Amino acid sequence: MPADLSPIDKAKFVAAKRASEFVESGMRVGLGTGSTAAWLVRCLGEMVREEGLRIRGVPTSARTAALARDVGIDVISLDEAKWLDLTIDGADEFDPELNLIKGGGGALLQEKIVATASDQMIVIADAAKEVANLGAFPLPVEVVPFGWQTTQALLSETLEAMDVMGREITLRMNGERPYVTDEGNYIVDLHLGRIGNARQLALILNQMPGVVENGLFVDICDRVIVGHGDGRIELRDINAGTVTEDRMEFVEDDNLFRDL
Ligand SMILES: O=C[C@H](O)[C@H](O)[C@H](O)COP(=O)(O)O
């Protein structure tokens, strides 16, 4: 590993590298989106090229699809795969029950569809993503562009009725224009501060006509692999309820970075 990699990237790398050990030949694997998931895709690409790993990957965004193809992974659609053995993805926050906030990178809709269609979901994260309560990270909600301001007003009224503390809602922008997702929708970010009941909020949000999906992943993630900048790794397993710690040594590996 290059010495100039920042601690945060080392943390993301070791989590991704550890997660790649759960991938076996013959698997159909959901490939997440974001800077942490990109490390995973690179690790898997190296295993495909150097170790003969045979997998088919279902990407959760156009940018992950492009990276996966670049590193040599056989990319198929979710409908071709139909069902996945495993999805590995990043997260913006995870709580002690392994519930998540996702969508900081705008890919929450495809990510949730893919993760839900998987036997298992593993989240890879640096330690900063761990929280006691979800909500400090603004909750992304994907909305259809038609009538988005009306949907935003409805969201605002609903949060008020629920007595949610933070109620600021912002439209995600890409420069001067609204950010547009891979599915052609907009994203509004809910600045809530603290989410008391994630399951209830997720259900209420998805009942609104203009809402396509929200970034709360409740009871979807099975395991979180937390990476640290010094190479330590923690495994949080929702079934076993255990925390295992081990350590990954940094090694120089030019092949891994060949495609960056
Ligand atoms: O939409 C993006 C995804 O939910 C990402 O997995 C999430 O935002 C975490 O991204 P990163 O690994 O870059 O922090």
UniProtKB/TrEMBL annotation:
EC number(s) per entry: 5.3.1.6
BP-aspect Gene Ontology terms: D-ribose metabolic process; pentose-phosphate shunt, non-oxidative branch
Pathway(s) the chain acts in: Carbohydrate degradation; pentose phosphate pathway; D-ribose 5-phosphate from D-ribulose 5-phosphate (non-oxidative stage): step 1/1
Catalysis: reaction(s): aldehydo-D-ribose 5-phosphate = D-ribulose 5-phosphate
Main enzyme class: isomerase
Record GO cellular component, one term: cytosol
Keyword Manganese attributed: no
Binding site for substrate: T33, G34, S35, T36, D89, G90, A91, D92, K102, G103, G104, G105, K129
Subunit record text: Homodimer.
Function, in words: Catalyzes the reversible conversion of ribose-5-phosphate to ribulose 5-phosphate.
Protein name: Ribose-5-phosphate isomerase A
Gene name, Swiss-Prot/TrEMBL: rpiA
